[in-house]
Amino acid sequence: MGRVVMYGSVSVDGFVADDNDQPGPLFEWLSSGDVPLDDSGAVKVSQTSYDYLRPYWDEIGVTICGRHVFDLTDGWDGQPPSGIDHVVVVTHRPAPEGWDPAAPFHFADGIEAAVTRAQQLAGDRTVEVAAGDVGGQVLAAGLVDEVRMDVVPVVLGSGRRYFGSVDAQHLLEDPDVVLPGNRVLHLRYRVRR
Questions:
Q1: What are the extents of the domains in the chain?
Q2: N or C: which end of the chain has fewer CB within 10 A?
Q3: Residue 163 CB coordination number (10 Å)
Q4: For the Bacterial bifunctional deaminase-reductase C-terminal domain, which residue ranges apply (predicted)?
């Protein structure tokens, strides 16, 4: 089985979006460089960020997100983002009416079922869990192997928390990556077992 990685861009005060679910300046670093991160050329980062992120993006097989993110993005029009093979959506509701059943999206009722399904789909590749409420729940359940954060130099003050509503202590190892890029600090921690 591949690793389960919680990932997202985050403000220095720990938020992944503002109170209106908008990332605001959290994604500005994705247009702060000269190196295209993907074939579209829409995302351009510094060479440092590219060298760190491109290998990680290439190893992701499945992304897990919550229904809220799925609805906010209109299900990415049935196309998983960033070239990911599959998306597993944690939800207690069925797929939207008219949803194409052939789209590589899978709907799971609960985080354990979502992680199990994602690992089946990913095989030896990485399962990425979007930071926020679902990511915090997966961490709280002891199912996260690694936490990756792209820390952006902004204070949002309030909004959607990176770790969601986690209300218990979880120990991480010392960071094994602390890497400054343009308008971002890349951090990687293994979860202490």
A1: 4-190
A2: C
A3: 21
A4: 115-172
What is the identity of the amino acid at 9?
S
The mean pLDDT of the chain is 95
Q: Which CATH superfamily is domain 4-190 in?
A: Dihydrofolate Reductase, subunit A (3.40.430.10)
**Tokens 């009722």, residue located:** 109
Confidence band for 167, pLDDT divided at 50, 70 and 90: confident
CB atoms within 10 A of CB 148: 18
Residue 37 structure tokens: 């991160």
The confidence score (pLDDT) of residue 83 equals 78
List, in order, residues 6 or more apart from 129 with CB less than 8 Å away.
4, 5, 6, 7, 63, 64, 65, 115, 135, 138, 144
Angstrom distance (rounded) from CA 129 to CA 39? 23
Closest C-alpha among 87, 165, 166 to residue 127? 87
